[in-house]
Write a structure and sequence with these properties.
Blueprint: H1 13-18, H2 21-33, E1 40-43, E2 50-60, E3 64-74, E4 83-90, E5 93-101, E6 105-116, H3 124-134, E7 135-144, E8 147-149, E9 155-156
Length: about 160
């Protein structure tokens, strides 16, 4: 997608001085990031989304551990897909930035801690619950130049589904 920004005529600069920097930024973002009519949705959504949790633990001196819980999202192969895009959804809205990848799985750290080994994974459930209320992802297939599948339903980070 191309974004052309034209420098206004000197008389038009008076108008720009009236606008705050934020207003100018919003105008540029809206004009540069708006979806192009060349992008076509030509297929059904990505299916078979499965979210799992994977724990990793490291032993530390003094009877302590460092642990991380990773949230992993996988999906079925999409016929004709050249790659996949994931879109982040947060409690503040939908991110315009997309994460493109060829793999059919995406992995992100959802919770972590360091504590006494005897305590297990302290606050793991709470940390996962907080993530699930603030962060989610959805996936689409990239089929050909400017052709995409529909977006999958979103799945919250920290939640897991049964295959």
């Amino acid at each position: 997608m191309r974004c052309l920004v034209q420098i206004p005529h000197p008389r038009g600069l008076r108008l720009l001085t009236l606008l705050s920097a934020v207003q100018v930024w919003v105008l540029l973002v809206v004009s540069c990031d708006s979806p192009s009519s060349a992008h076509k949705v030509v297929g059904s959504p990505v299916r078979g989304l499965v979210a799992t949790l994977e724990d990793e633990v490291s032993e530390l001196p003094g009877g302590r551990i460092r642990w991380s819980t990773y949230w992993k999202l996988c999906w079925e192969r999409y016929q004709g897909a050249k790659a996949y895009e994931l879109q982040t959804l947060t409690s503040e809205g939908i991110s315009p930035k997309l994460h493109r990848q060829s793999d059919r799985c995406f992995r992100i750290e959802a919770a972590a801690g360091e504590n006494e080994k005897s305590q297990g994974f302290v606050n793991r459930k709470l940390l996962l619950a907080l993530q699930s209320g603030q962060l989610a992802y959805r996936v689409r297939a990239i089929l050909d130049k400017n052709q995409f599948s529909e977006w999958s339903p979103s799945i919250s980070v920290g939640k897991f589904t049964k295959p």
